[in-house]
Amino acid sequence: MFNLTRLEYLDLSSNTLNGTLPSQLWSLKNLEILYLSHNQLTGPILQSFASMFNLTRLEYLDLSSNSLNGTLPSQLWSVKNLEILDLNQNQLTGPILTSFGSKLDLTILVHFDLSGKSFSGTLPSQLRTLKNLEFLDLSKNRLTSPIPPSFGSMINLKLLDLSTNQLIGPIPQELCNLQNLETLNLSMNNITGSIHPHIEYLKNIKELDLNHNQLSGVIHLEFRNLSSLSYLDFSSNRLSRNVSFQYPCRLQYLDLSDNFLTVICFNFLSLEYYSLNVSGLDRGYCKKTDYGSVYEGKPSKEHKHILLLEILLPMIVGFCFLVIGYVLTITKRPQWREVNQNYKNMHTELLARIML
Questions:
Q1: Keyword Hydrolase, does the record have it (predicted)?
Q2: Which of 73, 83, 66 is nearest to 13 (CA)?
Q3: Residues contacting 121, CB < 8 A, separation 6+
């Protein structure tokens, strides 16, 4: 097979291939597309890629769902025609920053997936040079740095998934410049600060997931411009005060549970799931969908006393007014009857005088 020097497309995915990647593979200089995903390939990727810089025409490389280990080889970043790079679900380790070195030549890269591994260290700011990148998934790693503000310069991004890491610091305001972004997932991190109101500039956003962080403060969103938003999860944070959905939206999934919020929600056209568990909910304005059942989770312990207070207090006050009204009715009724009888007597006497 390795004598096929004119080979352009090779797909060996979803087999039971095992062992290491043969170095002869990288002698196929005309190779443009290489699928080796969903196999049992092992060994360090560095040794396998020793001559990879010869694959100057390679555009698509998928080695996902194997057991490759070691660090990412620096030769990988010199493949200038690479558009899609998928290495997810392997056992690669080490810091991404060291792996990238100081320069990235992947200027036309569109799809970049390093999820489901054990990369550590910081998010490399060099990623800002990937101007054509549309899909970036670095989820399920052990990255510990803040999110670089320079990520806001990747204006063609449609998906940014940094979930399930140990990222710290606030959400950079610069991310609000990603006008083409459709999915933003920063969940399961240690992100702090507030949710910037300029997040409404993400007019094409469909999925926004910030759950299980340490976000606090007030949600200043009106969702006026987020007409495409269908999935919203702010659960398990420290958000407080009121949230109001005053404009028609296409939400199908809403989770604001485990916060300190009072929610007034309405104009939901197709909500299929909501889990609020908040301190108050005006259910009269929440429309259920015709497309399935609506689920509301059980209140968390820290909100139970607030829920009881807000539910029981109006009931008690209403009952008191009912009792007072009933007592007044009983005590005033004899006087009403006496006045009515006097009026009847006067009316009879007046008719008698007229007849005379």
A1: no
A2: 66
A3: 94, 95, 96, 97, 98, 143, 144, 145
HSE, CB side, 13 Å, CA atoms: give it for residue 87.
22
Written as one string, the DSSP assignment of 325-347 is: HHHHHHHHHHHHHHHHHHHHHHH
- The predicted model scores a pTM of 0.76
175 in helix, strand or coil?
Answer: helix
**pLDDT, tens only, 235-251:** 999 998 767 665 556 77
Strand order across the 216-218 sheet: 216-218, 238-245, 260-265, 280-281
**pLDDT tens, 205-221?**
999 999 999 999 988 77
Closest to 60 (Cα-Cα) out of 23, 103, 113? 113
Q: Where are the beta strands (DSSP E) in 117-215?
A: 118-121, 135-137, 142-143, 159-161, 168-169, 183-185, 190-191, 207-209
Least Cα distance to 226 among 255, 243, 248 occurs for 248
Architecture of domain 9-307: Alpha-Beta Horseshoe (3.80)
Domain ranges in the chain are: 9-307, 308-356
